[in-house]
Structures are given as structure tokens and as C-alpha cells.
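sanity check both lines:
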Amino acid sequence: MTTAITETDIRTAANKKVLQDYAKTYKIKNYSRISRQELEDELIKAVKQPPPQEINKETPQEFFNRVSKITDENELQTECEQLLEKLGTENLAPKSKSNKLRPYARLFLKLTPSSCDLPKKLFFPYSFKGKSPIDRHKFFKFTGLSDIDWDKADEEVRARKSNKSKSKDELADALKEESKVFPLDRYIATATQLLNSNDPWELGVGLIAVSARRPFEIVINGNFQSVDNPPQYIIYKEYAIKLDGLGKKRGKNPTTIVPLLIPTNEFLQALNKFRNNEEVQKFNRAFDNLIDVGTHESDAWKTLENTVGGKLRTVTEEYFGFLPKINDGENRKNILLRACTLKILTLRDVPKGTYKARIQYAGVIAGHIIPIFKEGGSVSFNGEVSASTLNYDDYEPDKTDIPLLENIVKIEIKETEDMAKIAELNAKIAELEKQLADKDAEIQTLKEKIEYRKLDLPEVGEMDNQMLFRSRKIGSGEEKLNRTWEAITAYNDNTPEYKLSPTNPILRQLTGVNGQAVKKWIQKHEVMYTDHVKKHNLDPYYNNRYRNRSDINVEMILETIEKEYLKLYGE
């Protein structure tokens, strides 16, 4: 907290809105639904309590960076024992213990006697299931990973799985669950309120509530695009969205097309506002940094989820506390929103379908069933209805007449920076037209700037480079990467020396596109990318942001590409 709030501040607050702002600072729950007097009492109680001590949570990467430098065995053993205590692995089964330690083990696997300057005494011969011994860092010995009998551990896992109820039993149990009725109008009104909030985390929860998407998909991983010709199973075409980056697919990246509660253009508009927020971008940059240093994608999200997920869950609990819990004694926050939205969309789109058709439609929305798009427009479905789908299906709105929502996301143009700039330029144009008739060229330039800032921009493929590289329109990122690639390859082909290696940081600097999008673009064009790198004998991993192997300043090369090949500086 930057400024301490006193009891006098609370008692003399001008209105309840000021108190609600204080309540956000102190994370007081349900502050919007209690009286002013109750809110004052809660705040006074909060300010009198000592501030919680900040706990320094060390990430696996930070632990590795510090501990991998230790050369004393006793010190190393102490660090490993403290890690086990922190992770609470004492009473865990071998497989569960291994899962807890996996983010750390991935990093220590890279350490071998030949890859570092550590003394040989910090390594030991380790044999996995009778295979030839290999040298492993003693992190694996001091954490107990090397002592696990994996044949026995696998047998225990299989035994636990066999003791679980069979899938048919799980489905039967899910079908027996009682319906959980929720108020439809209040749900929609709350989602609408959050979609128009200027608080990024309230907006994020609103996006979850109208899309049934997971937080990971909304905050970082989901690549959402509009769809010109949605498949036939999508009933309302203007509510369809294409999604790459489904959560919980274990490294796979299937494409799906699902419906939304609000029109696609409004959803994308709100999503852009959310992701352009500086606080959200900070987490995206942190995610990119973790990926860049070799952190696995799932581990990177788990590191950030403690903070990002907590912010989203806090908002969900505050605004959607009226929803029935997922089961007795448990309120799993954003899963509730997914369940409610699934049922609303299913009732809206297939109200008269068979139960099998409706539950399959819900499975597609949830990502439990993946559509396979074939040539000619036909679609097949990979996967089957799970107990999770049926548990989501328990939620029932108190009305079955589902409205087609429109104009939910409100754009207050008068408050945007671009509109303010337009007003300023228009006033300047009027003055120049009255006083300086010979300034036609300057007036035209100003008018072009105004045209650029209007919301009805041309398609990205029709924009010139100067307009494109200032645009944030959907699809502009890929178009920027395409044109920048053409510029880099043309430069390298025309230059006998001082080549430019098109690394991820270089493409990010030239385009302004985030690292994850650049990474996906490179993967998509892997053959073209690899051919060019081999053609000019470039190193795709060489960090030449400041200097390259030719010892010429890379900034000069970038300026040449921007000026002569991309024509970004005009005449």
C-alpha cells in the first residue's frame, strides 16, 4: 500500500464510493453489498490489524540459479531438505512427490560434469530401471528422487486407478446430481457490468463469464479470432469465435470453434482492452521471460497463476457469490462461471435438441470434445462426453428463454486517447484553414492522421506499412510479421555482408508483436524460416539485438530495414 488509510479517513469519507475504493485496497469481501456503516466497521477493523508479512516465494528457476552454484555437499543437502519441507512432500506417494519436484528436476537434469565447472563430488552414477548408469547432480539424491522404485510406484498408481470408480459409474453418479438453479438475469447483468469495468481483473472475469473459457486461455495462451464461415454446428454465426491454445491439452494445440454469449466483435473488443492493460501485459512479459529461460509452459503458468488466478478468483467471489457451489462445502470460483455459461449457451443454441446432442454441444464448448474440420466443410468430433461435462450440466438458469445479447460492450469514445487526439487535430486544421491557405500539405497530413485513428480502418492487408505498423487491429500482428520477414530476407539477399539473423527478439523489436505470437509465427513458417537461415549461414539462436557477428551495430541495420525496406519513415 502506498498511502496508509486512517480511521479518520474512513469516518470522514465523502461517500460510499470512496469507502469501496478503500475496501479494494484491503481486499474486503462483498464490500459492494453491505451498508455504509458495516463497510466502515470492516475497514476500521482492517486498518487496526498489522499488515501481513510478505513471503518471498522463490520460483524453481530462482532456486536452480542459486543452488546450482553451491559446491559444498552439506550446504546442498540442507537446501534440498528445506525445499522438501517447503513443498510438503513428507507424506506424499512417490509419484506425487515426483510431480511436485518436476519443475526443479527439469532444470537440474541439464547439469552434467561436462556442462559445468562443478566438482565431480556433486555428481553420482544413477541407473533408471536397470539401464546404464549416468551422472546425475546430487539434487536427485538429496531430494529422494533417485531412491524411488519406479516399478513399484507405477504399480501403486495402477492400483489406485483400478480402485477408482469406472467411467460408467462416474457418469452415472454425475447424472444423479441435483440441479443447481441460478438467476439468469442477475448472471447476465453482472457479466455485463464487469465487461464494461475499467478494472482489468473485473474485465477478465467478465470475459470468462461470456465465453466459458479458462483463465489461462483469456490471460495468456488463447489466440482468439473471428470466423467468416463457421461450421454448421454453430447456430448463430455472429457469435462464433475461433480459438487456438486450449488449456489442459498437455502440449497439444488443437483448434476449436465455439459460441459466445455476446457477439464476436464485442468480445474481441473487450479482450483487446483487457490484454492491452499494462498490468496484464506485465504478466504476459513475465510469462515470455520464463519461457525464454527454458521454463516449461505449464510451469510458467503455475508460477504466475498464484497471482493472476488469485486476482480473478477474488473478483468472481465478490460479484458471483450468489451462484450455487460446485458441490457441498466447495466453491471453485471460475469453474462455476464455466458451468453456468455452458448451460446458457446450450439452451440458447439447441433448445429442442436431444439430450445427447445438447450434452455433446456442451462438451465442445468446454473443450472436452474437439471438432476436426475436414475439406469440404464437414466436421467430425474427437472425444466423448465426460463426467466433468455432466457436472457442468447440473447448473440450470431459472429461465429457459435465453436472449441474444447485443451492444453489451460499451465504447466510450470521448474518453479514448485517439478520440482526444482527433479533436485536437481537427481544431488545428480549422485554424490553419482560416489563417494559412498555403498550408494545404500540412492540413492533408493531419487529416490522414485523423482517418487513421477512426475505428473503421481498412483491412490489414490493404493498409500501407505506416498505417499497419501503428495499427492494433485483429490480424495486424501476423501481417506485420509477414511484411517484416519480406524486408529482412530482401535485406539479407541484397547485402553481401552484415547479415541480420531473424531471431525472436529482432522480429519483436521490428514489429512490436509479443514474443508468444512471434514464436507461433516462426513455428507456422518453420520450413521457410529454416531455409533462409541455412541459405545465409545464420545462427537462429544468436542474440544479436545489439551487435552481430560482423561486429556492426545492429541498430543501424534495423534502421536501414525500417527506412529502406519497410518505408516506415516516409519520404
